[in-house]
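Kindly review both lines to help learners:
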Amino acid sequence: MELGEADQGRVAVEGLVKHFGSVKAVDGVSLAAESGEFLALLGPSGSGKSTILMCIAGFETPDAGRITISDRDVTSVLPQRRNLGMVFQRYTLFPHMSVLDNIAFPLKMRGVGRAEREAQAREALATVRLADYGARMPAQLSGGQQQRVALARAIVYRPPVLLMDEPLSALDKALREEMQLEIKHLQRELGVTVVFVTHDQTEALTMADRIAVLDHGRLCQVGTPRELYEAPRDPFVARFIGETNMIDGRAAADAAVGSRVGIRLVGDTVVEATAMAPLTRDAAVVIAVRPERLVVSADSGGPVSGRVREAIYAGVATTYVLELATGATLRMRSATGANALDLPADGAVSLSWAAEDARAFAAEGA
């Protein structure tokens, strides 16, 4: 049966489970990267993201679940028969081979003739902007150039899917940011599906069409970068994606998902937030508010009062560390410029926020 264009390069895992001894590394995960999509698997160490990638690649065998690539069940298929490209954190270039021979090596293993594999290797080199580097040896290249060669080697046989396991983590900040944009541009140019593992939130937000957030082997949420940042459905996602203030309180009334609800803080101050889970009156909750969504004025007459404990200037923005009357510490971020907020050190302030900018979750263990 011939596949439609929409099926080529689609990667899906269904009910994936993987144990290492008594540890459940992946706990019933189901997700898909659509054809031509850049999907990031994001989470802290031990979240299961690399294990999922290794199962897709065929280097790990799941204990349960199903893996399909281009609508073909590959759960029990050998890695070399899955038609995938792979790029790892370590470049694993052959030190005794030239750059061109390194790139052509996968074609040689596939029985491609010398002239054709050299032509394809040169084309791949040009694609990663290293057209004149074919005769060099890996030791003569910088870290960024070696990573480009590894990328060229992964795409030289034109796989529909490219798997990348933290490929930029060994690079310095400036080079890492440059490579993020290059890889994204290349992915769009080639139309290849990318499944990209990272623990770096900024990297995922910068590069991915969608992000799957994982924690302790479970899938917390899948969405676009904007959806995850603006509308986290899980307290872990709210904390892990970007910077977030977490404020403890209790629901002042019953609330359905998506409705406005009053939250009683310590000291009986009531503020409003949007319920992200069904809440019952007096249930323990935690409110998530981004630093840039706090509204602060230099007085103590608002519903929530506090004092400025520290101002951290970082060029494009100043972050104020605020201590509330309840003892909680929050961060508020203000852009610098002509209309920049200028709060006095140790000055009294009042805080507020729009209900749609504050998300109320049931407290963990509640």
Summary: Helices lie at 49-57, 99-109, 114-127, 143-155, 173-190, 201-207, 225-230, 235-240. The chain has two domains: 11-230, 243-362. DSSP finds eight helices and 20 strands in the chain.
